[in-house]
Amino acid sequence: MATDVHQHLWGAAFVDVLRGRATAPRLDGWTLYIDGEPPYDVDPADHDPAARAAQAAADGFDRVLTSLSSPLGVEWLPPAEAAPLLDAYHEDALALPAPFGAWAAACVSEIDPSPLAGWLDRGFAGLQLPADALLDAAGYERCAPLLSLLEARGLPLFVHPGPAPASDGPSWWPALVPYVHQMHTAWFAFRAFGRERHPRLRICFALLAGLAPLHGERLAARGGGRGEVDRDAFLETSSYGPRAVDATIRALGIDTIVCGSDRPYAPPLGFGPDFGEAAEHAIRVNNPGRLLTGEE
Protein backbone atom coordinates (compact mmCIF):
# COMPACT_ATOMS: atom_id res chain seq x y z
CA MET A 1 0.00 0.00 0.00
CA ALA A 2 1.29 3.44 -0.92
CA THR A 3 1.32 5.29 2.40
CA ASP A 4 1.64 8.85 3.66
CA VAL A 5 2.58 8.50 7.34
CA HIS A 6 2.12 12.16 8.31
CA GLN A 7 -0.99 14.28 7.84
CA HIS A 8 -3.27 16.32 10.10
CA LEU A 9 -7.06 16.38 9.86
CA TRP A 10 -9.16 17.92 12.63
CA GLY A 11 -12.59 16.49 13.34
CA ALA A 12 -15.67 18.30 14.58
CA ALA A 13 -15.40 17.16 18.21
CA PHE A 14 -11.78 18.26 18.48
CA VAL A 15 -12.62 21.65 16.97
CA ASP A 16 -15.51 22.07 19.43
CA VAL A 17 -13.26 21.38 22.43
CA LEU A 18 -10.65 23.84 21.16
CA ARG A 19 -13.37 26.48 20.75
CA GLY A 20 -14.53 25.89 24.31
CA ARG A 21 -11.16 26.69 25.83
CA ALA A 22 -10.32 30.10 27.33
CA THR A 23 -6.54 29.63 27.14
CA ALA A 24 -4.16 28.28 24.52
CA PRO A 25 -4.45 26.04 22.67
CA ARG A 26 -7.80 27.41 21.56
CA LEU A 27 -9.82 28.34 18.51
CA ASP A 28 -11.77 31.57 18.12
CA GLY A 29 -13.94 30.78 15.13
CA TRP A 30 -11.24 29.46 12.81
CA THR A 31 -8.35 31.49 14.27
CA LEU A 32 -5.92 29.32 16.20
CA TYR A 33 -4.08 30.59 19.26
CA ILE A 34 -1.15 28.59 20.62
CA ASP A 35 1.73 29.55 22.86
CA GLY A 36 4.94 30.50 21.07
CA GLU A 37 3.43 31.28 17.66
CA PRO A 38 1.37 34.08 16.10
CA PRO A 39 -2.37 33.57 15.55
CA TYR A 40 -3.07 31.32 12.59
CA ASP A 41 -6.16 31.43 10.37
CA VAL A 42 -7.20 27.83 9.74
CA ASP A 43 -8.88 27.08 6.41
CA PRO A 44 -11.89 24.88 7.25
CA ALA A 45 -11.71 23.34 3.77
CA ASP A 46 -8.38 21.80 4.81
CA HIS A 47 -10.26 19.67 7.35
CA ASP A 48 -13.04 18.34 5.13
CA PRO A 49 -12.67 14.52 5.28
CA ALA A 50 -14.25 13.87 1.89
CA ALA A 51 -12.11 16.47 0.16
CA ARG A 52 -8.98 15.18 1.86
CA ALA A 53 -9.80 11.59 0.88
CA ALA A 54 -10.13 12.70 -2.74
CA GLN A 55 -6.83 14.54 -2.43
CA ALA A 56 -5.14 11.42 -1.06
CA ALA A 57 -6.45 9.42 -4.02
CA ALA A 58 -5.12 12.07 -6.41
CA ASP A 59 -1.76 11.86 -4.66
CA GLY A 60 -1.76 8.10 -5.23
CA PHE A 61 -2.03 6.99 -1.59
CA ASP A 62 -3.86 3.86 -0.47
CA ARG A 63 -3.33 4.67 3.21
CA VAL A 64 -2.88 7.97 5.07
CA LEU A 65 -2.05 8.28 8.77
CA THR A 66 -3.24 11.40 10.55
CA SER A 67 -1.94 12.61 13.88
CA LEU A 68 -2.51 15.17 16.59
CA SER A 69 -0.77 18.47 15.89
CA SER A 70 1.85 18.32 18.66
CA PRO A 71 2.87 22.02 18.38
CA LEU A 72 -0.54 22.78 19.87
CA GLY A 73 0.85 21.59 23.19
CA VAL A 74 -2.09 19.31 24.01
CA GLU A 75 0.14 16.49 25.25
CA TRP A 76 1.85 18.84 27.75
CA LEU A 77 -1.38 20.09 29.34
CA PRO A 78 -2.28 18.85 32.84
CA PRO A 79 -4.15 15.53 32.53
CA ALA A 80 -7.55 17.02 33.35
CA GLU A 81 -7.15 19.59 30.55
CA ALA A 82 -5.54 17.21 28.08
CA ALA A 83 -8.14 14.44 28.43
CA PRO A 84 -11.10 16.14 26.65
CA LEU A 85 -8.89 17.14 23.72
CA LEU A 86 -7.23 13.73 23.48
CA ASP A 87 -10.56 11.89 23.70
CA ALA A 88 -12.06 14.11 20.99
CA TYR A 89 -9.02 13.68 18.76
CA HIS A 90 -9.11 9.89 19.04
CA GLU A 91 -12.85 9.54 18.49
CA ASP A 92 -12.71 11.85 15.47
CA ALA A 93 -9.80 9.87 14.03
CA LEU A 94 -11.67 6.58 14.39
CA ALA A 95 -14.61 8.07 12.48
CA LEU A 96 -12.55 9.11 9.45
CA PRO A 97 -13.32 7.39 6.15
CA ALA A 98 -10.88 5.35 4.09
CA PRO A 99 -8.01 5.72 3.36
CA PHE A 100 -7.34 7.26 6.78
CA GLY A 101 -5.80 5.61 9.79
CA ALA A 102 -4.18 7.45 12.69
CA TRP A 103 -1.43 7.66 15.26
CA ALA A 104 -2.56 7.64 18.88
CA ALA A 105 -1.55 10.44 21.25
CA ALA A 106 -0.79 10.52 24.97
CA CYS A 107 -0.46 13.01 27.79
CA VAL A 108 3.20 13.54 28.72
CA SER A 109 2.79 15.97 31.63
CA GLU A 110 1.98 12.88 33.68
CA ILE A 111 2.70 9.47 32.19
CA ASP A 112 -0.02 6.81 32.29
CA PRO A 113 0.04 4.05 29.64
CA SER A 114 -3.50 2.82 30.41
CA PRO A 115 -5.38 5.25 28.11
CA LEU A 116 -2.90 4.57 25.32
CA ALA A 117 -3.45 0.83 25.66
CA GLY A 118 -7.16 1.38 25.21
CA TRP A 119 -6.73 3.42 22.05
CA LEU A 120 -4.26 0.94 20.59
CA ASP A 121 -6.84 -1.79 21.24
CA ARG A 122 -9.15 0.14 18.92
CA GLY A 123 -6.79 0.03 15.98
CA PHE A 124 -4.41 2.99 16.06
CA ALA A 125 -1.21 2.43 14.07
CA GLY A 126 1.15 3.38 16.89
CA LEU A 127 1.91 6.41 19.05
CA GLN A 128 3.00 9.93 18.23
CA LEU A 129 4.94 11.87 20.87
CA PRO A 130 6.22 15.45 20.79
CA ALA A 131 9.96 15.59 20.22
CA ASP A 132 10.50 17.81 23.24
CA ALA A 133 9.45 14.89 25.45
CA LEU A 134 12.40 12.83 24.17
CA LEU A 135 15.40 15.14 24.12
CA ASP A 136 17.56 13.49 26.78
CA ALA A 137 17.98 10.52 29.10
CA ALA A 138 15.43 11.93 31.53
CA GLY A 139 12.84 12.10 28.76
CA TYR A 140 13.34 8.45 27.92
CA GLU A 141 13.12 7.58 31.61
CA ARG A 142 9.78 9.40 31.94
CA CYS A 143 8.26 8.06 28.72
CA ALA A 144 9.51 4.48 29.19
CA PRO A 145 6.06 3.07 30.14
CA LEU A 146 4.60 4.34 26.85
CA LEU A 147 7.52 3.10 24.75
CA SER A 148 7.61 -0.28 26.48
CA LEU A 149 3.93 -0.72 25.66
CA LEU A 150 4.68 -0.09 21.98
CA GLU A 151 7.54 -2.60 22.06
CA ALA A 152 5.35 -5.22 23.68
CA ARG A 153 2.74 -4.79 20.93
CA GLY A 154 5.21 -4.47 18.07
CA LEU A 155 3.92 -1.00 17.17
CA PRO A 156 5.95 2.04 16.08
CA LEU A 157 6.58 5.48 17.55
CA PHE A 158 6.30 8.67 15.50
CA VAL A 159 8.28 11.67 16.81
CA HIS A 160 6.84 15.05 15.77
CA PRO A 161 7.90 18.60 16.72
CA GLY A 162 6.33 19.83 19.91
CA PRO A 163 5.46 23.38 20.98
CA ALA A 164 7.80 26.18 19.97
CA PRO A 165 9.07 28.64 22.57
CA ALA A 166 7.93 32.23 22.23
CA SER A 167 10.07 34.37 19.95
CA ASP A 168 9.94 37.68 18.11
CA GLY A 169 10.90 36.10 14.79
CA PRO A 170 8.85 36.10 11.58
CA SER A 171 5.92 33.73 11.06
CA TRP A 172 8.13 31.05 9.50
CA TRP A 173 10.54 31.01 12.45
CA PRO A 174 8.99 28.15 14.48
CA ALA A 175 9.00 25.74 11.53
CA LEU A 176 12.57 26.57 10.53
CA VAL A 177 14.31 26.91 13.90
CA PRO A 178 12.76 25.30 17.03
CA TYR A 179 11.00 22.50 15.11
CA VAL A 180 14.20 21.58 13.30
CA HIS A 181 16.26 21.91 16.48
CA GLN A 182 13.88 19.61 18.37
CA MET A 183 14.04 16.95 15.67
CA HIS A 184 17.83 17.19 15.38
CA THR A 185 18.19 16.74 19.13
CA ALA A 186 15.62 13.93 19.25
CA TRP A 187 17.53 11.97 16.58
CA PHE A 188 20.76 12.01 18.55
CA ALA A 189 18.99 11.50 21.88
CA PHE A 190 17.49 8.29 20.56
CA ARG A 191 20.92 7.13 19.47
CA ALA A 192 22.47 8.06 22.82
CA PHE A 193 19.69 7.03 25.22
CA GLY A 194 16.67 5.53 23.50
CA ARG A 195 17.90 2.59 21.51
CA GLU A 196 19.64 0.89 24.43
CA ARG A 197 16.48 1.15 26.54
CA HIS A 198 14.18 0.02 23.73
CA PRO A 199 16.07 -2.36 21.45
CA ARG A 200 12.95 -3.59 19.61
CA LEU A 201 11.26 -0.22 19.09
CA ARG A 202 10.58 0.96 15.54
CA ILE A 203 10.68 4.75 15.45
CA CYS A 204 10.06 7.39 12.80
CA PHE A 205 11.27 11.00 12.95
CA ALA A 206 9.34 13.78 11.22
CA LEU A 207 10.94 16.19 8.74
CA LEU A 208 14.00 14.00 8.12
CA ALA A 209 14.96 14.44 11.81
CA GLY A 210 15.88 18.04 11.09
CA LEU A 211 18.58 16.69 8.71
CA ALA A 212 20.50 15.35 11.71
CA PRO A 213 21.81 12.31 9.76
CA LEU A 214 23.81 14.66 7.53
CA HIS A 215 26.08 15.27 10.52
CA GLY A 216 27.36 11.70 10.50
CA GLU A 217 30.89 12.74 9.54
CA ARG A 218 31.04 15.18 12.46
CA LEU A 219 29.61 12.50 14.75
CA ALA A 220 32.41 10.14 13.76
CA ALA A 221 35.03 12.86 14.12
CA ARG A 222 33.87 13.66 17.64
CA GLY A 223 33.87 10.08 18.83
CA GLY A 224 30.18 9.28 18.51
CA GLY A 225 30.66 6.26 16.27
CA ARG A 226 30.94 5.68 12.56
CA GLY A 227 27.31 6.40 11.75
CA GLU A 228 26.00 2.84 11.80
CA VAL A 229 22.56 2.66 10.18
CA ASP A 230 19.73 1.63 12.51
CA ARG A 231 17.24 -0.05 10.16
CA ASP A 232 14.43 0.44 12.66
CA ALA A 233 14.94 4.22 12.90
CA PHE A 234 13.00 5.78 10.02
CA LEU A 235 12.72 9.33 8.72
CA GLU A 236 9.80 10.88 6.89
CA THR A 237 10.08 13.50 4.18
CA SER A 238 7.61 16.24 5.13
CA SER A 239 8.40 19.75 3.87
CA TYR A 240 11.58 18.65 2.13
CA GLY A 241 12.32 18.12 -1.55
CA PRO A 242 14.62 16.03 -3.73
CA ARG A 243 17.90 17.63 -2.66
CA ALA A 244 17.43 17.06 1.07
CA VAL A 245 16.02 13.57 0.54
CA ASP A 246 18.87 12.65 -1.81
CA ALA A 247 21.44 13.86 0.73
CA THR A 248 19.78 11.82 3.49
CA ILE A 249 19.74 8.73 1.30
CA ARG A 250 23.46 9.21 0.65
CA ALA A 251 24.03 9.33 4.41
CA LEU A 252 21.80 6.41 5.46
CA GLY A 253 20.70 4.53 2.37
CA ILE A 254 17.11 4.40 1.18
CA ASP A 255 15.69 1.65 3.42
CA THR A 256 14.69 3.96 6.28
CA ILE A 257 13.13 6.82 4.26
CA VAL A 258 9.32 6.96 4.28
CA CYS A 259 6.84 9.32 2.67
CA GLY A 260 5.20 11.91 4.88
CA SER A 261 3.64 15.13 3.60
CA ASP A 262 2.36 17.08 6.64
CA ARG A 263 -0.83 17.94 4.72
CA PRO A 264 -2.58 20.35 4.82
CA TYR A 265 0.58 22.35 5.43
CA ALA A 266 2.73 20.88 2.65
CA PRO A 267 2.24 18.57 -0.36
CA PRO A 268 3.92 15.16 -0.61
CA LEU A 269 7.36 14.89 -2.13
CA GLY A 270 7.35 14.95 -5.92
CA PHE A 271 9.53 12.21 -7.36
CA GLY A 272 11.42 13.41 -10.40
CA PRO A 273 13.77 11.57 -12.74
CA ASP A 274 16.55 11.76 -10.15
CA PHE A 275 14.79 9.09 -8.06
CA GLY A 276 13.14 6.62 -10.42
CA GLU A 277 10.38 4.08 -9.93
CA ALA A 278 12.34 1.77 -7.61
CA ALA A 279 13.15 4.56 -5.16
CA GLU A 280 9.60 5.87 -5.26
CA HIS A 281 8.26 2.38 -4.52
CA ALA A 282 10.66 1.99 -1.59
CA ILE A 283 9.74 5.34 -0.03
CA ARG A 284 5.98 5.16 -0.59
CA VAL A 285 5.31 1.42 -0.26
CA ASN A 286 8.04 -0.89 1.07
CA ASN A 287 9.57 1.26 3.78
CA PRO A 288 6.30 2.50 5.32
CA GLY A 289 5.07 -1.08 5.36
CA ARG A 290 8.12 -2.19 7.33
CA LEU A 291 7.80 0.78 9.71
CA LEU A 292 4.18 -0.04 10.51
CA THR A 293 4.35 -3.84 10.61
CA GLY A 294 8.01 -4.75 11.16
CA GLU A 295 7.80 -7.10 8.18
CA GLU A 296 10.20 -6.97 5.24
Automatic annotation (TrEMBL):
Q: Does the keyword Lyase apply?
A: yes
Record-level GO cellular component terms: cytoplasm
Transmembrane ranges? none
Source domain of life? Bacteria
Which GO biological process entries does UniProt record here? Answer: secondary metabolic process
**What GO MF annotations does this protein's record show?**
carboxy-lyase activity
Q: Keywords for this entry?
A: Lyase
Q: Which InterPro entries match?
A: ACMSD (IPR032465), Metal_Hydrolase (IPR032466)
Which PANTHER family does the record cross-reference, listed alphabetically?
2-AMINO-3-CARBOXYLMUCONATE-6-SEMIALDEHYDE DECARBOXYLASE, ISO-OROTATE DECARBOXYLASE (EUROFUNG)
Please give the name of this protein. Amidohydrolase
